[in-house]
Design goal:
mainly alpha
Length: 109
């Protein structure tokens, strides 16, 4: 599944090779899929594209604009990209439960 996700990204990046934004977001997604292979299926969602994620960022930036200018940081933009593809946010991702220590500090000393 990872290979299919990477191929999908590469195909879109190749088709829009002169679009710096597609290249930037595509590179981010490629790295993300490699680091989070469990999320590769989200990239493969039918109808979801790098261009579509750029449009999602554009719409979000419009909401935050001031004096006709809407700007997002890379982090904000990439969070929007991941949300567009349906990747669970950090708050929704499963976090390991804390481990209860049975030993006291005196026991360890």
């Amino acid at each position: 599944m990872i290979q299919q996700a990477l191929q999908k990204l590469q195909q879109e990046m190749s088709a829009k090779s002169k679009d710096a934004y597609v290249q930037h977001v595509g590179s981010f997604l490629t790295g993300y899929v490699r680091n989070h292979p469990e999320h590769a299926a989200f990239v493969l969602t039918d109808g979801k594209t790098i261009i579509g994620s750029l449009n999602a960022m554009k719409e979000e930036a419009k909401k935050k604009q001031s004096n006709g200018v809407g700007v997002l940081s890379d982090q904000q933009g990439f969070e929007i990209v991941l949300k567009y593809f349906g990747v669970p946010s950090k708050q929704e991702q499963v976090v390991a439960a804390p481990v209860e220590l049975k030993a006291s500090l005196d026991d360890l000393l």
